[in-house]
Predict the structure.
Amino acid sequence: MAGLGRSVRVGAAVLAGWLITGLLGCSASGSGTDRIVAAGPSTPSGVAVAPERPGRAEGLTLAAAEEFVRYYSDLLNYASATGDTARLLGESDTGCENCKSYADFVKKSNAANGLLTGDYREKVGDVAELVRGVHGRVGGSATIQVGRYVSRQTATASPFTSEATKYNRKFALSARGQRWVMFEMQLVEQ
């Protein structure tokens, strides 16, 4: 099955078949940028540092939504590196099932405990199609690139190798106060 490796990484057994239009209750299109950003901050010694929400990701504008999506990818990378999912879940809606599934997987299988190796970090490209829905949510998609990596569910489990792949992350954001949080997300292999 195409994309099974990435599915294992994010706990895809529970990925729902939701459509962004269904979550938002509308359709429209927008555009993003074509930049690829570095995948997750680190100190000079290579130890992962929890990313802070950048000022550009504050507020409820579409520009803030785009920056939040990039920041959220940094949180995913940090959680994959360390197994620390507190900030990731703190920036997720309590009902985001795929956020919880991802967090559950990387708590068990992460780079810090040796169960995730290789070029697993996400690199975000274009964040596009940002639209406001009738319930105040924002939806869109982001191009994600991941390199070749190996994951295991336990230290004694057989390794699963995932080749370098490009994905489209469909997402919906909801407001919590005056900030966006991840309402739901889904990866689709391109």
Summary: The longest strand covers residues 165-176. Residues 4-189 form a domain with the Nuclear Transport Factor 2; Chain: A, fold (CATH 3.10.450).
